[in-house]
Design goal:
By secondary structure, this protein is an alpha+beta fold. The chain contains 7 helices and 17 strands. The longest helix is centred in the last third of the chain and has 29 residues.
């Protein structure tokens, strides 16, 4: 069976940056689309003539097929690989027009709450600066809000806000699959423990809590008990289920804006009532981040293993951090 092909769209001005070519008995179908797989949402596909497929196509992915059959208004696509192997190309009508969407089982099952998120500024902040962790894949863009994002390594969480150069709040984003997987292998326990060291933090889940009890590869009670234990052990880090990815993005924006306002007001209030300097703590970076900083600062550090205490102290002195383990210093 021919492969499913994904190539770059040579039309640079198009918002749909890829061409999808699906083999069919009556002739291959070609669509313009915006991504290489429907991972977090169904992808709109604009059908085009087979002549739009370039002779020298820049192939991004060549995916071997196990099956590619049309059944009614949909083409069932099954790839010959272990993960992300099932999807559908659905022919439907929307707003009186014929439309085509490419969806996976995850995006097909995703809830449709039929709500419109507000565009009003959170906490009346004109431009909220959000730091996005450099390791975050498919990051929120906050395109509907007044946000400026900066990609950088975060000590914990996927999205954070800073005050005077210090991380004051962070949000860890989880899909349901990632939540369950990290809970089973205990990674989530360490992530929540790191978040609890910050003044404000949370975990946001892009699904409904009810979906926990529909899991078929792990006992739902194990997941429910694990989540409850995390909340009891670290009550300052809420785990919030937000039904869909757009709602989770909206909640993250509102939470970080509120945390930033709180941090600014709390710091100012404590400075007024105390004669001593008051700082909101910053979580220390990873060893790898300090090693990279030390090399740029001209300090000799080993390629692996622990760093000497004087290297850590040099980092603290350079960043004006006197005691990062304390939440508030007076």
């Amino acid at each position: 069976m021919p492969d499913l092909l994904i190539a770059r769209n040579p039309a640079e001005d198009s918002k749909l940056g890829y061409l999808l070519r699906i083999p069919q008995p009556g002739g291959d179908l070609v669509f313009r689309t915006s991504d290489t797989w429907p991972r977090v949402k169904a992808l709109y596909c604009h059908p085009v003539s087979i002549t739009e497929w370039p002779d020298d196509a820049d192939i991004v992915e060549r995916l071997p097929l196990r099956s590619c059959q049309r059944r009614g208004g949909a083409i069932d696509v099954i790839l010959d690989r272990a993960r992300e192997n099932r999807s559908q190309v659905v022919f439907t009508k929307a707003r009186g027009r014929d439309m085509v969407f490419w969806q996976s089982p995850r995006t097909r099952k995703q809830a449709r709450p039929n709500v419109r998120t507000p565009t009003a500024r959170a906490q009346s902040i004109e431009q909220l600066h959000i730091v996005v962790d450099a390791h975050e894949r498919y990051a929120y863009r906050f395109t509907g809000q007044q946000v400026i994002t900066q990609t950088r390594g975060l000590p914990c969480g996927d999205y954070g806000v800073e005050l005077d150069g210090q991380l004051v709040a962070s949000v860890e984003r989880k899909s349901l699959a990632d939540l369950v997987g990290s809970l089973i292998n205990s990674r989530l326990r360490f992530q929540v423990a790191d978040l609890a060291a910050l003044p404000r933090a949370a975990v946001v889940v892009e699904d409904r809590y009810s979906q926990v009890f529909k899991l078929d590869r792990v006992r739902p009670a194990v997941v429910a008990d694990g989540l409850a234990e995390l909340q009891v052990r670290w009550p300052t880090v809420p785990i919030v289920f937000c039904e869909t990815r757009p709602l989770a993005e909206e909640w993250t924006y509102r939470f970080l804006a509120a945390a930033h306002t709180w941090a600014a007001d709390e710091s100012a209030a404590l400075q007024r009532v105390s004669q001593a300097r008051v700082d909101i703590a910053i979580a220390e970076p990873s060893t790898a981040e300090v090693r990279l900083w030390a090399r740029t600062a001209g300090l000799a550090v080993p390629d692996r293993g622990r760093l000497r205490p004087e290297v850590w102290q040099a980092w603290r002195d350079a960043h004006n951090v006197s005691d990062p383990s304390a939440t508030i210093q007076t």
